[in-house]
Write a structure and sequence with these properties.
With 217 residues, this protein is of the alpha/beta class. Helix content is 47%, strand content 14%. The protein has a 5-stranded parallel sheet with strand order 2-3-1-4-7, sandwiched between helices. The chain has a two-stranded antiparallel sheet with strand order 5-6. Helix 2 crosses helix 3, helix 4 runs parallel beside helix 5 and helix 6 crosses helix 7. The structure holds BIS(adenosine)-5'-pentaphosphate.
Length: 217
């Protein structure tokens, strides 16, 4: 029987969850489930819900748990999650962690590990403030740490890069506040369950990836 790999990638905004989730998704051939990406897609719809979600995300707050839990519950039912999955940005509160336990129990699944990326606040602010994205392929750059070759254009698609609207300074500080108040308590929650795998997230992306693989095997 093939072994499943079912992970939560945990950490503050800018810790590198998306970067590492993508690498792990390729490595293990399992889907990356990013609640942030799903919500950003939902925001593009012309509906009252989309407008409500937009306002919440622009403030850097958490969108209502009921919405996110439903999204994750439905996504985990899909066939491609049969061999495992990487949850990127979920759970973010103890309430969401308990909902995840219920969902996994009902679907006959279980978590193998919660990989926690540890990065200093100074580094997080620098990473988020300088992040720029390609609108076509989604590739992430950083103005000083990983700049594109041509001035603010994607190396591959040549499209002008954009800044996420929640990567502006006031929203970054709001997101970090929310993380410390509402999400950080999950570190102890998962440590008590024996699932927590702390990783030094402040080394380069390839070294972080190597550390993650070493704690998973
Ligand atoms: P979400 O999209 O999940 O954002 P986030 O958690 O704030 O995380 P980011 O995407 O900003 O950062 P990341 O950790 O993925 O880092 P990345 O790899 O991009 O959520 C957005 C919003 O949606 C939330 O604020 C909330 O409103 C809502 N939401 C989402 N989930 C929710 C939930 N469960 N409940 C309620 N609301 C929810 O890297 C960042 C930058 O650093 C990049 O430029 C990258 O190139 C660079 N970088 C990455 N790794 C390294 C490294 N090792 N060294 C140097 N640079 C690096």
């Amino acid at each position: 029987m093939t072994k499943t790999t079912s992970l939560v990638l945990f950490g503050p905004p800018g810790a590198g969850k998306g970067t590492q989730a993508e690498k792990l998704s390729h490595h293990f051939t399992i889907p990356q489930i990013s609640t942030g990406n799903i919500l950003r897609k939902l925001r593009t719809e012309d509906t009252p819900l989309a407008r409500e979600v937009s306002e919440v995300m622009l403030r850097g707050d958490l969108v209502p748990a009921s919405l996110v839990v439903d999204i994750v519950e439905e996504r985990l039912k899909e066939k491609d999650c049969g061999a495992g999955f990487i949850l990127d940005g979920f759970p973010r509160t103890v309430e969401q962690a308990k909902a995840l336990e219920r969902i996994l129990g009902e679907q006959g699944k279980q978590l193998d590990a919660v990989v926690s990326l540890e990065v200093s606040e100074k580094e997080l602010v620098a990473r988020l403030g300088g992040r720029r994205l390609c609108p076509a392929c989604g590739r992430a750059y950083h103005l000083s740490m990983n700049p594109p070759k041509e001035d603010e254009r994607c190396d591959t698609c040549k499209k002008p890069l954009f800044q996420r609207d929640d990567d502006r300074e006031d929203t970054i500080l709001g997101r970090l506040r929310v993380y410390w108040h509402e999400t950080a308590p999950l570190v102890d929650y998962y440590r008590h369950q024996g699932l927590l795998r702390p990783i030094d997230g402040e080394t380069g992306p390839d070294r972080v990836f190597a550390q993650i693989l070493s704690v998973l095997t």
